Hints:
Shape: globular
Distance between the termini: 20 Å
Order of helices and strands: HHHHEEEEHE
CATH class: Mainly Alpha
Structural class: alpha+beta
Amino acid sequence: xxxxxxxxxxxxxxxxxxxxxxxxxxxxxxxxxxxxxxxxxxxxxxxxxxxxxxxxxxxxxxxxxxxxxxxxxxxxxxxxxxxxxxxxxxxxxxxxxxxxxxxxxxxxxxxxxxxxxxxxxxxxxxxxxxxxxxxxxxxxxxxxxxxxxxxxxx
Length: 154
């Protein structure tokens, strides 16, 4: 829940990048320059970014000029658990804990746009159980809560 509390954001970014590099090495994956920079862009803040915002940043560095390039990089990051897609906003955020992220819930501040990530394994189990009772085989779920963070006036 780092996004809604004061913290050393530089340390936060370094920790996430270090974890991703280690996981890529362990999984024998290539963290290409476009993938790496895409993750760095997502790590700049705890706010969701649209694909075209990421593309604009990549283009300013000379790394990507076309939407398919950014979508491939985002797809890789999501597939590996290094980033998440916020369905309600059609935006992307870096994973706070890429080495241990399980069943996250995203809390999105409607005022400032910051996003906090919190594991909620019991909630996910309950959703899967409810789906199973109806004969529905769930393959994915995203839990997003909209509201106001503790720093934004209500």
